[in-house]
Structures are given as C-alpha cells and as structure tokens.
Amino acid sequence: MLALFLRDLRLGIRAGGGALTGIVFFLAVVATIPFGIGPDLDLLARIGPAIVWIGALLASLLGLDRLFQADREDGSLDLLVLADERHMLALTVLVKCLAHWTASVLPLAVASPLLGLFMNVEPAGLAAALATLLVGTPAITFIGAAGAAVAVALPRGGLMISVLVLPLAIPALIFGVSATYGAIADPAPFLPPFLILCAITLFSAVVGPLAAAAALRHAD
Amino acid sequence: MRLSAEELSGERGGEMVFSDVSFALCAGDALVVSGPNGSGKSTLLRIVAGLLPAAGGRLSFDATESFPTLASACHYLGHQNAMKTALTVAENLGFWRDFLGTPLNPVDDALEQVGLGGLGHLPYAVLSTGQKRRAAIARLLVAHRPVWLLDEPTAGLDAASEARFGELMAAHRRDGGIVIGATHLPLGLEGAGELRMGET
Known about the structure:
heterodimer; A: mainly alpha; about 0% strand; B: alpha/beta; 3-stranded antiparallel sheet; 8 strands; transport (chain B); ATP-binding (chain B); ATP binding (chain B)
C-alpha cells in the first residue's frame, strides 16, 4: 500500500501530473477577486475567508477526473481491482485519495495564508483558514473519489464529476467558512463548526472509498 | 491445482457473445483460445479473472492458502500494459512487485529474462511498442501467480521475443502454472488444449 501511495505521489508531482494546475487555478481565482471587487479593504476582509475556501474547493475538483481515469486507460485499474483479495479495493481507493490529496490539495492549503493576505484577512483568520482547509479538504477528495469512480468510463468525466460532487461538498464548505469566521468575528464560535468539519471528513473517509470501490467494481 | 469452467457464457453490452464454453485445466496445462474478432476471447479472459460477471455457467478453482480466490491467483495481461509513462521501467515493475505481493524475481532479473536488461532506468514512455510489451511481460515474472491470463500477449513482439516468451511460458508450466492465452497467432505452447470460439 505504501508502494501505491509513493507511486501516485510521484505521478502527481512529475511533469504532466496535474498537481500544479490546481494551484495555478487557485491563485488565479483568489488573485483576480480584489481587482474585480475594488480596493475596499473592509469588504475584502469580510469576504476573504469565503473566497479562499471557494477557490480551494473548486481547485481541488479540477484534478479529480484523472484519479481513476488514468489508471483505467493504461489498464492498471484492472489489476488494482484484481488485487482485491490482498488489498481491499476500498483501502486501495483510500490510499489513492490520500496520495492525490498530498500531491494536489495539500499545496492549496499551504498557499492559503498567502492568498488570504491578498484579501486583507487578519492573522487569526489566516491561521483558521489554514486549519480548516487542512481538516476539511480531505472530505472533498473522498467524496470526489466516489464521483470519479462513477464517471470513470465517461470520456468527458470531469464535468459529470463536478455536477455530482459539488452538492455533496457544500456541507464541508459551509462549516469550513463558518469556523474561519468564528475565529475572526467575536460572537460566532470556532470550535463547534470546526469539530463538525472534522466529523464530515471522517465520515466521508469511510463512505467515499466504499462507494467508489463499489462503482469501480462495476465499471464495465 | 485445478481450474475448470462449465457451460460458461458471457455477454457484452447486453449481447450474448459466447455460450456453452467448458474446459478443465490442471497444473502445467495450457489453453489457447482462438477465434475471429468479436468471438469473445477477451470477454472470456475477463470473466475468468473476475473482472466481468459470467452470464451463465460456473468457474471452479481449488483454493489454496496463499491464493484463496481465482482472482487472487491470476496474472492478467490485457491489451494495455498497465505501466505509467511518467515512471521508469524499473519504478513501474518495482511498484507492481510490491503491490502484487508474493514476489518472485527481482526487477533486474525479470528485465534480463525478457531481453530488456540494463534498460530499467529509462522512462517507460521512450520504449518502442515491442519493448513496452516485453516490460509488461516482465510484470508476470516479478510476482508469483499460478494462473496467467494472456490477451494477445505477443502483439507487437518480434520473432526472437516471441520465442523467448514461449520459453517463459513453458518454464511457468513446468513449475506447475496454468496458462490461458487468447490469440490469433501461434503462441508456441506445446501440448496446449485448444478452444475455438465463435463456432457454435
């Protein structure tokens, strides 16, 4: 399983892996917002955490369509499914998700404080956005894996995945943003929405790979 | 070890492509599946591997401790080579060796046996079609599986590589393995059973 994690990580980082696409898209979304909104610092600070979260959510959806499709095209997916007895397929999916998250989504979370600065978010908000993204984005990847598995046989699966996954990822967005606001605005609490976000991630870490494995087993 | 199929039938996209296929193989046996395009050779192999459900009939396999199901006892070499172009040949094979479990030959030895010795450091993408196929054949050698399911294994191979692959299959059978190959071309399997599809 470690071998699978390392292979997918390598593939993600090497040329053509697509890990950079997400980061550049994230940068583009967040960096253009201030130009569109205008130099109203208070307004930017108010919407900043939400913009960072929306940007990260959309950027992390970008690479998802390749999660299983690349393996299907070169025939590796057949072998991963065949190895079910030795490595339960749901665990294989979980490991692939973790590798995808490490290569393509973790850099988004790491870049978020810098992008938060563009939006005039205060330091506590930057730390909260980083923490909520670290905890919340795995949920998007796990849910996205189920969508990617359903759409694996479709030639233009990316569109389908976004449509399938976006509604299911909304709870993570809501609690991620409200926890971030909780760290800045005084009456709103930080901890309860943050813990619910953790729960969403843990829940989808179980349900997402199981659903994806079931879909992959019946892919053709 | 024994692998047998009784009155197996398979369908693809709702169309029945073959029915009433039966065979029985013991350790050391080989079966050559031949027939025109669309006669269901690949479908049969995918059904045996468990990648597709059978439309009817049944498959039986004597489970052993290390290979509890038929799928876990199979090496499947399909039309695609299951190798990543962004990785080197050795990285690809090393991954499959670790992932598949029950390791057999070290990667360098396996490459030597398919005539790719010393090319392990090259990115998989720069190999020629025949070399890519040979690297995929090397995958059969890095991990032990008693049953080899080969779908057009010699596609793209030159005569020398074909002969070398014939020897590898013979060696696998001498060690008590089973080979099922779907092909148009002669595979050089001595004493192999023959199953002609599409003549019902």
